[in-house]
Amino acid sequence: MNGLNYDTNDGIVLHFYQHAVFGLAHDIPRFRQGKNWVEQSGDLGLWMIENLPTKAWRLMKEPRWITLVLTQMALIGMTCLFYPKQLVLYAKIFVEKCPLPTRETVKFAAYLTIVAHIISAALRAYGRFRNDALMDAWYTG
């Protein structure tokens, strides 16, 4: 079942589902209607979780990137094989000198990221629902 098809004879629960899918989905039928600035700002906030995984996957399949990663892994492997004591010593020095974030900092950053994505999803849905021409076209099919 496609959640974007709106039917006035459906029940209230299915209407809620259809509106949620229409408001939050990445790609919807536009019915030749443009995006307003509220929907565009929501799209901007949701870009990272919608487009970044596909871009990262495309990058991971690129031969130049694979060559670079495999070369670095081979260099680290050879360093572990031939200089294990020095590697452990330098790793300890690096960890001691490197400023690691506290637990509260990581927790707060995760909280801000989640809240920003929730607000962006709400802005996208609000922008679509405020676009009267788009909503009329969707209701009429």
What is the overall silhouette? Answer: elongated
Specify the oligomeric state.
single chain
Order of helices and strands: HHHHHHH
Please mark out the parts with pLDDT under 50 across 5 or more consecutive residues, or reply none. Answer: none
Number of strands: 0
Largest sheet: none
Strand content: under 5%
State the secondary-structure class: mainly alpha
Helical stretch count? 7
Rg on CA atoms, Å: 24 Å
Helix content: over 70%
> Mean pLDDT, nearest integer?
88
Terminal CA distance: 15 Å
Describe this protein with a few key phrases:
141 residues, mainly alpha, 76% helix, 0% strand, elongated
Give an overview in words.
With 141 residues, the chain is mainly alpha-helical. It has one domain (12-140). Helix content is 76%, strand content 0%. The model has no long low-confidence stretch (mean pLDDT 88).
